[in-house]
């Protein structure tokens, strides 16, 4: 199987996560400071090569009514620029509430506000990538169940 890179794109920081080689589990990788968009794109391109990534999933922030706001439009533009730079597919994935889940996870873990601010984007990238993996069992994700012989996913029971 191949690795998938997950990105939680912001104008100041980009959270980065990567899947295991089987595409089952997402793990946080780093938070990129976005000094300028060009250097952020170059770093992502480097991570794709370094980790042997074969697909990138970019979290698309939608409003609860599924519409796109300013950040959603910025993310679409960023993903399009990335598509022109890399030779792997770049998919957009609905990331509604991933930052909320990430923040709650960090609060539950007892992290203070200053520490949470430094890692919340990485955790959000991990949450969105795991969501993608779980929803795409043919690409390695668990599909919320076990894998039957022949690669079919199902629910144990």
TrEMBL record:
<keyword id="KW-0963">Cytoplasm</keyword>
<protein>
    <recommendedName>
        <fullName>Putative pre-16S rRNA nuclease</fullName>
        <ecNumber>3.1.-.-</ecNumber>
    </recommendedName>
</protein>
<feature type="domain" description="YqgF/RNase H-like">
    <location>
        <begin position="2"/>
        <end position="102"/>
    </location>
</feature>
<dbReference type="Pfam" id="PF03652">
    <property type="entry name" value="RuvX"/>
</dbReference>
<dbReference type="GO" id="GO:0000967">
    <property type="term" value="P:rRNA 5'-end processing"/>
</dbReference>
<dbReference type="InterPro" id="IPR006641">
    <property type="entry name" value="YqgF/RNaseH-like_dom"/>
</dbReference>
<dbReference type="InterPro" id="IPR037027">
    <property type="entry name" value="YqgF/RNaseH-like_dom_sf"/>
</dbReference>
<keyword id="KW-0690">Ribosome biogenesis</keyword>
<keyword id="KW-0378">Hydrolase</keyword>
<dbReference type="GO" id="GO:0016788">
    <property type="term" value="F:hydrolase activity, acting on ester bonds"/>
</dbReference>
<dbReference type="InterPro" id="IPR005227">
    <property type="entry name" value="YqgF"/>
</dbReference>
<comment type="similarity">
    <text>Belongs to the YqgF HJR family.</text>
</comment>
<dbReference type="InterPro" id="IPR012337">
    <property type="entry name" value="RNaseH-like_sf"/>
</dbReference>
<dbReference type="GO" id="GO:0004518">
    <property type="term" value="F:nuclease activity"/>
</dbReference>
<keyword id="KW-0540">Nuclease</keyword>
<comment type="function">
    <text>Could be a nuclease involved in processing of the 5'-end of pre-16S rRNA.</text>
</comment>
<dbReference type="GO" id="GO:0005829">
    <property type="term" value="C:cytosol"/>
</dbReference>
């Amino acid at each position: 199987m191949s690795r998938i890179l997950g990105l939680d794109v912001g104008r100041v920081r980009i959270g980065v996560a990567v899947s295991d080689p089987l595409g089952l589990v997402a793990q946080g990788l780093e938070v990129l400071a976005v000094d300028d968009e060009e250097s952020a794109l170059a770093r992502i391109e480097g991570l794709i090569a370094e980790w042997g990534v074969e697909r990138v999933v970019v979290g698309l922030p939608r409003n609860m009514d599924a519409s796109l706001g300013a950040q959603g439009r910025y993310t679409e533009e960023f993903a399009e620029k990335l598509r022109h730079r890399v030779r792997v597919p770049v998919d957009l994935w609905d990331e509604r509430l991933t930052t909320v889940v990430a923040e709650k996870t960090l609060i539950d873990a007892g992290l203070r506000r200053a520490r949470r601010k430094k890692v919340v984007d990485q955790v959000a990238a991990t949450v969105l990538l795991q969501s993608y993996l779980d929803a795409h069992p043919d690409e390695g994700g668990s599909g919320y169940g076990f894998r039957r012989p022949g690669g079919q996913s199902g629910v144990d029971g």
